[in-house]
Design goal:
The protein has about 325 residues and is of the alpha/beta class. It has helices at about 1-20, 25-40, 50-60, 80-95, 105-120, 125-145, 150-175, 180, 185-195, 215, 235-245, 270-275; strands at about 205, 225, 260-265, 280-285, 290-295, 305, 315.
Length: about 325
């Protein structure tokens, strides 16, 4: 997003100078640098040109939305209601008071809005852009038909209200016990997994929602599949995970072969954990509204498809690592 915004600034600067009668010195060179240099900065890393593949796997992977909600496109819902409300307000303000904004500000606002529509996780960039850019357009809406004194009173009231909300939120957060922040991960579930995984050969097949297990149970480090860096997985590995999560195909269980303990989200994977719990010699160790833990006897052999042994990659039973 940083690259996109700087390139947009270079393009808008070029056309602004092209139309200007008094052009700044070296304006062509400045425009060229703003357009070309950001792409080089995106590769300024010890990984160099291999980052090109990384960006491609991360940004153009059609399977990611099936794993992570934040990679899904923004559609009207309770989760995205505030985004769409702000987007409609932004379009109206820019259309009505465009003269208050520079071409770059209008373009940056539209670019970040488009990124928010493309993926939920990008909404935050639109929010930050709106926070910086929209007040100038909002001034035009507040000034029309209002005298200066009522407007000053309104802005003072909004500022005091915002400050009060921040102080109240801080006080409420500070008053909560530490357990309030970790209620999405029950400690009893972690203890149940720790007891069941005392055998060093026992591995745990978690998912992205339960990947914090090694932090809760340090003895499981190197034995948990998987961390959530999906961009490091191949398309075939992601397809196997997708089949397992959706229970699609005759061999959808293959991704979890060799793992003694399985964790599920009871709300999103109800059929999965019930199916696993119904297997021969399997039993449900723990379940609540946040997590279900299933133990399978006799699954301590090397996984047919092993995922994550301290870093984020897969290894096959044939020994390729």
């Amino acid at each position: 997003m940083g690259v996109v915004l700087v390139v947009l600034r270079g393009l808008t600067f070029f056309f602004e100078e092209l139309r200007s009668e008094k052009r700044s010195p070296h304006w062509k060179l400045r425009s060229a640098l703003l357009v070309i240099a950001p792409g080089a900065c995106a590769l300024a890393s010890p990984y160099g040109f291999s980052l090109v593949g990384y960006y491609h796997r991360l940004l153009a992977n059609p399977l990611l939305p099936s794993f992570v909600d934040e990679w899904q496109a923004s559609t009207p819902s309770r989760k995205t209601a505030l985004f769409f409300l702000l987007a409609f307000a932004a379009v109206w303000l820019v259309a009505r008071y465009r003269e208050r904004l520079t071409p770059f500000e209008s373009t940056a606002l539209l670019a970040t809005m488009a990124s928010g529509l493309w993926a939920i996780r990008s909404i935050v960039w639109f929010q930050l852009a709106a926070l910086v850019i929209l007040p100038r357009a909002l001034d035009g809406a507040l000034e029309s038909g209002r005298s200066r004194a009522p407007r000053r009173c309104l802005m003072r009231s909004l500022g005091i209200g915002a400050l009060g909300a921040i102080l109240l939120g801080t006080a409420v957060a500070a008053a909560q016990p530490s357990a309030w922040y970790t209620k999405a991960w029950p400690q009893r579930a972690a203890r149940a997994i720790e007891r069941a995984a005392r055998d060093p050969s026992a591995r745990v097949f978690a998912d992205d929602r339960h990947a914090r297990l090694p932090w809760e149970v340090p003895s499981l480090r190197g034995r948990v599949a998987y961390d959530v860096r999906f961009e490091l997985f191949s398309a075939e590995q992601l397809r196997k995970l997708a089949s397992y999560r959706s229970q699609v195909g005759d061999d959808w269980r293959r991704a979890a072969e060799g793992y003694r303990l399985l964790t599920f989200d009871p709300q999103k994977e109800r059929s999965g954990w019930r199916s696993a719990g119904g297997e021969p010699q399997a039993r449900v160790l723990y379940t609540d509204g946040a997590i279900a833990v299933v133990s399978r006897a006799g699954s301590s052999q090397r996984p047919a498809v092993a995922l994550d042994r301290g870093s984020a990659y897969w290894a096959t039973a044939a020994g390729s690592r």
